[in-house]
Design goal:
The complex is a heterodimer of chains A (110) and B (112). By secondary structure, chain A is mainly β. In chain A, 0% of the residues lie in helices and 56% in strands. Chain A has no helices and 11 strands. In chain A, the strands form 2 sheets. In chain A, strands 2, 4, 5, 9, 10 and 11 form a 6-stranded mixed β-sheet that branches. In chain B, strands 2, 4, 5, 6, 9, 10 and 11 form a 7-stranded mixed β-sheet that branches. Chain B has a 4-stranded antiparallel β-sheet with strand order 1-3-8-7, with no helix packed on it. Chain B starts with a strand and ends with a strand.
C-alpha cells in the first residue's frame, strides 16, 4: 500500500484568509478524490480529478492534479468558518483500490 | 436516493466481548469497503467486498472479519475486543463505474 502524505497536518487561520493543502505520493494514481469530514461524521466527497494537470473549481475551492498524477493540491480562497473540517485526499491505484491520505485538519476562526 | 446507512451510530462494549456493525450501501452499489478511523492512525482500510466476495484486505488481525449479503448489505465483526479497537468505523459504497466512495456516518465504538 502506497502512502499519501498530506501537508500541513494542522492549519488554523482567520476567516477571509487563503490557504493551500497538499497531497503527495511517489505513486501514480489513475484518479484522486478530495473529501471533507466533520467531527462525528463520515467523509463527504468534494471532487474527483482524473487527468494530469487537471484543475477543477468548486465555488471558493480549487483542486489541481499534478501533471505526473502523483500529487494534488486544494486551494481555498477567502476561507469561512463553514470550511472547518478534516480534508482527506484519496488516490486510486488500481481497480477500485483506494488509499487515503494522512489528512489535514483545518480550523477557520471567525 | 438514500445514502449509506450504518447502524448503530454509537456502541459501548467491554473488553473481550464481540461486536457486529451493519452497513447498507446506496441502492445499486455492489462494492462495500470498511475503514477504521482513529486520531493517531487516521483512516485505515479494513476490507472490501464485492458481490459477496472479499476482494481486498488491509493489515488487521483476524479478529476483524466481515461479510456481504446478496442484497449488498454488509456486516463487520470484531471479536475479543481490545481497548485499542475504540474508533470510528466507516463504511463506504461505490459503483462499478468509478472509485468514488460514498461514506456512511460511521459507528462510534468505545471499548471499556
Amino acid at each position: 500500500t502506497q502512502l499519501l502524505e498530506q501537508s500541513p497536518q494542522f492549519l488554523s487561520i482567520q476567516e477571509g484568509e487563503n490557504l493551500t493543502v497538499y497531497c503527495n505520493s511517489s505513486s501514480v494514481f489513475s484518479s484522486l478524490q478530495w473529501y471533507r469530514q466533520e467531527p462525528g461524521e463520515g467523509p463527504v466527497l468534494l471532487v474527483t480529478v482524473v487527468t494530469g494537470g487537471e484543475v477543477k473549481k468548486l465555488k471558493r475551492l480549487t483542486f489541481q492534479f499534478g501533471d505526473a498524477r502523483k500529487d494534488s493540491s486544494l486551494h481555498i480562497t477567502a476561507a469561512q468558518p463553514g470550511d472547518t473540517g478534516l480534508y482527506l485526499c484519496a488516490g486510486e491505484e488500481g481497480y477500485q483500490k483506494v488509499t487515503f491520505g494522512t489528512g489535514t485538519k483545518l480550523q477557520v476562526i471567525p | 436516493k438514500a445514502g449509506v446507512t450504518q447502524t448503530p451510530r454509537y456502541l459501548i462494549k467491554t473488553r473481550g466481548q464481540q461486536v457486529t456493525l451493519s452497513c447498507s450501501p446506496i441502492s445499486g452499489h455492489r462494492s462495500v469497503s470498511w475503514y477504521q478511523q482513529t486520531p493517531g492512525q487516521g483512516l485505515q482500510f479494513l476490507f472490501e467486498y464485492f458481490s459477496e466476495t472479499q476482494r481486498n484486505k488491509g493489515n488487521f488481525p483476524g479478529r476483524f472479519s466481515g461479510r456481504q449479503f446478496s442484497n449488498s448489505r454488509s456486516e463487520m465483526n470484531v471479536s475479543t475486543l481490545e481497548l485499542g479497537d475504540s474508533a470510528l468505523y466507516l463504511c463506504a459504497s461505490s459503483s462499478l463505474i468509478d472509485a468514488e466512495a460514498f461514506f456512511g456516518q460511521g459507528t462510534r465504538l468505545t471499548v471499556v
